[in-house]
Amino acid sequence: MGRTILMNILTFLLLFKILNEKRRILMRTHKNELTILIVMLSNLHVLAVSFMAIGKPPGFISNASGISTNYTVVGDGERSNWIWTTGTYSLGPGPIVDISEDGSIMIANVNSGGGDGFYKVVHDAVQTIGGYAHGFNKVKAISSDGSKIVGDTDINNSDQHPAWSYQNGVYTILPLPTGFTGDARAEAISSNGTVIAGNIQSHNSDITETVLWQNGYIEILPNPENVTFSQVLEIAGNGSVIVGFYRDTNIARACVWQNGMIETLPMLTGVTNSIATGSSFDGSIIFGNFLEGPGTGFSPIGAFIWDELNGTRLLKDFLENDYGLDLTGWNLLSVSATDASGNIITGYGINPQGQEELWIATIPEPGTIILFVVGGLMLQRKRI
After folding, report:
1. Quick check: bond before 222 cis, omega within 30?
2. What is the pLDDT along the chain (384 residues), one digit of tens a residue?
3. Which structural domain range is residue 8 located in?
4. Alpha helices (H) along the chain
5. Facing residues of 257 across strands?
6. Strand runs (DSSP E) across 174-284, as ranges?
7. Which of 70, 137, 159, 234 is 20 to 30 Å from 338 by CA-CA measure?
8. CA-to-CA distance for 287 and 315, rounded, in angstroms?
9. Domain of 82: which CATH number?
10. Is residue 362, in this structure, part of any structural domain at all?
C-alpha cells in the first residue's frame, strides 16, 4: 500500500510539472487517507530582485572585481583601488581582485602588474604575503571561505611562469601537461576550492588554451576549430561551468566550457563582440558584456544575461520585463563580478543623469516547486 501511495504521488508531481498548473490535489484511497498539498510557485525566490546604484569610487572609475553576499564590493582599477561597504567608499592597499563570501577576507596585488608578494586583508588587517618566487606574483581569485588563493608568477631571469594555489602558508604548483613547456595562469576557483580554471600557452606556439585543474590533474579544454586564443574569466560556484571568451581574428565571442565541451553563446542582432564574465552557482545562468571593438579597445556597451530557456537578453530588459523594475534612463554597460552564490552581481553603467555609476543587482533563483505534506496517513481497518 505504501508503494502504491508513493507511485501516486510521483505520478501527480510529474503530471503537474508538465502542465505547469497551480492547484491543490486531494488523494484518497479506500483504506488510507493521504492529504497532499502541492503548491507550484513559478516565481518563488530565495532572494527578492533588487537594483541599487552605489555611486562612483574615488578617482578614475573602474569595474568592480568582486562582491560578497553582504554587498561589500571591491575594485582593482589601475588608478583607483577601492572598497565599497554600507554606502561608503574607502581605499584598499592595492588592486583588490577578489573577496570571500562573507566579505571578511580580500586579496590584492602590490600593483596592477604584480610584485614580489601580495596582500591579504583579514577583518581590515592587512597582511603582506611573500610571493612564490622573485618576480611578478599576481593573485587572481579566492575560495568562498577565503582559505585558498590562486595566482601565477612571472619569475625573474627565467622563462618559467607557473600557476599556483596558496593555502595554510604553502604554495602548490599546478601541474602542466606531460612534455609541455610554457606559461600557466590560474584565473578562477570554485567556491569550495577544489576546481581551478586558467590558461596555458606553449613556448613553441602562439596558441593559448583553457585548462581545468582538479584532484591534482590538468585537463585541456577545447578551442573552436582554427581558434588560437581563449581566456577564462570565471568559474561557476560548484565548479561545473567555466565562462570566458575566445578570439577569432579580431572578434571576441562569449563562451562556456562544460563537460569537456565548448559552447558559443548567441549574440543579439547588430552586436559583434562579447565576453562571459560570471554565472549562477550551478552555471545555468550566464552573465556577460557586449563590446565595441576592436578599434575602441573592446569597450563594454551592454550587459547581458543568458539561460537555455530564454537565450540571450539584455540584462536591463530582463530586470524590467521579468520583474517590473523601473530602470528608466539607465544603460547597464557591464557585469564585472558575481558573489559566491551567483545571485548578486555588480557592474557599471550610465545613470539617468548621464554619469558613470556602479550598481548592484540581486537576481532571484529560478522558480521551483514545493511540496507540502499537510496531511497524514490514517490507517483504517475495513469492517465487515
Report:
1. no
2. 343 333 344 434 443 443 344 333 333 333 333 333 333 333 333 468 999 999 988 776 678 999 999 999 999 765 568 999 989 999 889 999 999 999 999 999 998 778 899 999 999 999 999 999 999 999 999 999 999 999 999 999 999 999 999 999 999 999 999 999 999 999 999 999 999 999 999 998 989 999 999 999 999 999 999 999 999 999 999 999 999 999 988 899 999 999 999 999 999 999 999 999 999 999 999 999 999 976 556 789 999 999 999 999 999 999 999 999 999 999 999 999 999 999 999 999 999 999 999 999 999 765 433 333 333 333 333 333
3. 2-41+371-379
4. 2-19, 315-323
5. 242, 262
6. 182-189, 195-202, 208-214, 217-221, 229-235, 241-248, 251-258, 261-264, 273-279
7. 137
8. 8
9. 2.130.10.10
10. yes
Tell me which residue of 208, 218, 220, 212 sits closest to 241, measured CA to CA: 212
Residue bearing cell 532572494: 47
Distance CA 132, CA 137 (A): 7
At 69 the three-state DSSP class reads coil
Q: Would you state the cell numbers that stand for residue 336, as one nine-digit string?
A: 564585472
- Let me know whether 14 and 136 are in one domain: no
The rounded distance, in Å, linking the Cα atoms of 371 and 288 is 34
Dist CA 299 CA 290 (whole Å): 8
Q: What share of the chain is helix, strand, coil (3-state, %, to 5)?
A: 5, 50, 40
